[in-house]
């Protein structure tokens, strides 16, 4: 399994990621401005409270002067401020939460859309669980940043500004001394940001590996149980889980040192400093108790958002690392092959020509070498050969799943690259050896959510391939529920649905990748007649291991190690007594001739 490893994030890299993340907030700038206004109002209220109490202590409590109306007014104003803070805080948090969810909603759509457009090369080298982790876990981590961290950072900025304005109003000299706290806290933030990114990146990578291992185990559960691989997979999962645990513990220890205790120490030092300063000041002249109360309270208000920021720095670092992984996926250049479209290019007859095509999956080893052949309109060309000979690679290129390096492929004399992708998909019908059924029902799997296709057309397609015989026996007929991958149906039934799906689109080119391999002999005999009808008027490229299914093909290509070593009709190849002849004898049990 490939390790989902990324280079370490430098400070510059983190800043670039943060700016890119904040770009997602631009469409919501009006809502953000309103939410920030509400945030400022709550901060003003929270600072006004201690100042109001300071006024009451110095002007009324200390001189023991309690005019009823004035004291009652102060009390009502204080209560009103607290109620105002609660109400405005609710709407402010609600607004920020809604913005955050909208941003992540858009980001997930962008990531999912990107995944849909990636080429097969990307999926060949990246575990499915790793991709799932980026679309789900990583975006969830980013959501937490927008939900709590951004709000906390903004709140801290406004609170610090408001508190220092109030402190300067109370005591200018002491306020200047209090400014020394800020560079000390900034040093802690810089140290934390520098080292925590590596820890969180390690955690995200381990989590991605956990997801990949889980996805691999679930998708291959049948093989896991059949070959008694449970213990091995459990041991591998446990090993990855242990690494994830160790990475998490390293981070917890680091957080425990720098986040809570360090800030608490600064806070305690600040309180001692304030009390000491006012204590020495009281030796020379009286100190207003209200000012002392307000100063200590405001210092507490100053450290409260700082503590919250420090606590959320871990969330921030996780989000930055997660975002870098998401953006790496979004920036991946392994896209599906691009088309150099010719306007109004349309597949008419379906004649296919491969002309000196060479192809490699890894850019090093050629799996196809100078492949050339022509499938005339309405003809069937069969591809045979041993495993790894290049049969599926030819189909992958024809379907435009991969870009080929040398040579070209033509349809009706026009390069495959010149057709719009939608035109190629519309005019080419593909049936795989292991058909994929989507969650839903039988009818939706045949029509593939094409609302322009009527129920009558769906049923006609099923009847054409004789799938209606088993469908109509189901309790809900065409409305029968299909679970994930169609696991409740037999291989043959899934294949019949796939045939019906292909027939329903009425393609000009038919591509069969060992399409009858999972169908029993009785069903195969019945479906061969349907295939014969399907092939009429359509150009067919068929991969076959059972040679009995392609003996009527106009052209049979025998591949070996990426090259066409024999070509001709069934009878012509039998006469040549080459590789095809040996394969034919083996499948018919005539071993003596092969040995000789």
CATH domain fold name of the largest domain? ABC transporter transmembrane region fold
State mean pLDDT (0 to 100 scale).
82
- The assigned CATH architecture of the largest domain is Up-down Bundle
**Biggest sheet character:** 6 strands, mixed
Task: Name the beta content range.
Answer: 5-15%
Task: Quickly give the structural class.
Answer: alpha/beta
Could you give the count of β-strands?
Answer: 12
Q: What's the helical proportion of residues?
A: 55-70%
The number of helices is: 21
Give the C-level CATH assignment of the largest domain: Mainly Alpha
Q: What is the distance, rounded to the nearest whole angstrom, between the alpha carbons of the first and last residues? A: 44 Å
Low-confidence residue ranges: 591-596
Query: How would you sum up the global shape?
Result: elongated
The radius of gyration over CA amounts to: 35 Å
**At the fourth CATH level, what is the homologous superfamily of the largest domain?**
ABC transporter type 1, transmembrane domain
- Taken together, the total number of domains comes to 2
Describe, in plain words, how this protein is organized in 3D.
The protein has helices at residues 11-23, 29-61, 68-117, 120-125, 128-170, 172-178, 181-219, 221-226, 230-258, 260-284, 289-330, 391-398, 421-427, 442-447, 455-464, 468-471, 491-504, 521-535, 570-576, 579-587, 591-595, and strands at 352-360, 366-375, 380-385, 406-411, 414-415, 428-431, 440-441, 481-482, 509-513, 539-543, 555-560, 563-568. It is of the alpha/beta class. Helix 1 (11-23) crosses helix 11, helix 2 (29-61) packs parallel to helix 5 and helix 5 (128-170) packs antiparallel against helix 7 (181-219). The longest helix has 50 residues, at 68-117. The protein is elongated and about 120 Å long.
């Amino acid at each position: 399994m490939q390790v989902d490893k990324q280079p370490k994030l430098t400070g510059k890299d983190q800043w670039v990621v943060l700016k890119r993340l904040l770009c997602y907030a631009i469409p919501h700038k009006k809502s953000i401005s309103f939410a920030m206004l509400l945030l400022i109002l709550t901060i003003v209220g929270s600072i006004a409270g201690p100042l109001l109490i300071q006024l009451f202590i110095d002007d009324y409590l200390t001189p023991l002067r309690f005019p009823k109306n004035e004291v009652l007014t102060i009390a009502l104003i204080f209560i009103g401020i607290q109620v105002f803070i609660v109400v405005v805080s609710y709407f402010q948090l609600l607004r920020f939460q809604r913005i955050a969810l909208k941003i992540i909603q858009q980001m997930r759509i962008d990531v999912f859309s990107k995944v849909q457009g990636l080429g097969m090369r990307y999926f060949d080298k990246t575990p499915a669980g790793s991709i799932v982790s980026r679309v789900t876990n990583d975006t969830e981590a980013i959501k937490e940043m927008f939900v709590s961290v951004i709000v906390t950072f903004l709140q801290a900025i406004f609170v610090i500004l408001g508190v220092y304005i109030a402190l300067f109003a109370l005591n200018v000299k002491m306020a200047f001394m209090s400014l020394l706290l800020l560079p000390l806290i900034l040093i802690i933030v810089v140290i934390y940001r520098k080292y925590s990114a590596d820890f969180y990146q390690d955690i995200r990578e381990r989590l991605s590996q956990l997801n990949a291992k889980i996805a691999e185990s679930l998708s291959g559960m049948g093989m896991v149980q059949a070959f008694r691989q449970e213990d091995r997979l459990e041991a591998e999962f446990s090993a990855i889980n242990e690494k994830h645990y160790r990475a998490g513990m390293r981070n917890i220890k680091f957080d425990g040192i720098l986040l809570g205790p360090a800030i608490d120490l600064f806070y305690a030092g600040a309180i001692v400093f304030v009390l000491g300063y006012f204590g020495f000041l009281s030796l020379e002249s009286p100190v207003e108790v209200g000012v002392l109360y307000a100063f200590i309270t405001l210092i507490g208000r100053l450290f409260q958002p700082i503590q919250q920021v420090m606590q959320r720095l871990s969330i921030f670092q996780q989000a930055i690392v997660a975002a870098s992984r998401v953006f790496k996926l979004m920036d991946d250049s392994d896209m599906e092959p691009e088309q150099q479209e010719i306007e109004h290019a349309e597949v008419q007859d379906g004649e296919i020509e491969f002309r000196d095509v060479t192809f490699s999956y890894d850019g090093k080893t050629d799996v196809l070498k100078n492949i050339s052949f022509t499938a005339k309109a309405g003809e069937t060309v069969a591809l045979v050969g041993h495993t790894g000979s290049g049969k599926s690679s030819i189909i992958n290129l024809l379907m435009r799943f991969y870009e080929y390096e040398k040579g070209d492929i033509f349809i009706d004399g026009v390069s495959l690259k010149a057709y719009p992708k939608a035109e190629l998909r519309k005019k080419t019908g593909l049936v795989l050896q292991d058909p994929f059924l989507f969650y839903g029902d039988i009818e939706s799997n045949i029509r593939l959510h094409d609302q322009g296709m009527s129920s009558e057309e769906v049923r006609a397609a099923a009847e054409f391939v004789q799938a209606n015989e088993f469908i109509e026996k189901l309790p809900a007929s065409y409305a029968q529920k299909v679970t994930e991958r169609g696991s409740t149906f037999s291989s043959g039934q899934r294949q019949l649905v796939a045939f019906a799906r292909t027939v329903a689109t009425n393609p000009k080119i038919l591509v069969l990748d060992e399409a009858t391999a999972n169908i029993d002999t009785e069903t195969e005999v019945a479906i061969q007649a349907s295939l014969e009808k399907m092939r009429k008027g359509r150009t067919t490229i068929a991969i076959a291991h059972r040679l009995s299914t392609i003996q009527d093909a106009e052209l049979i290509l025998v591949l070996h190690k990426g090259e066409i070593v024999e070509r001709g009709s069934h009878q012509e190849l039998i006469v040549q007594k080459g590789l095809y002849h040996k394969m034919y004898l083996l499948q018919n049990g005539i071993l003596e001739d092969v040995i000789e």
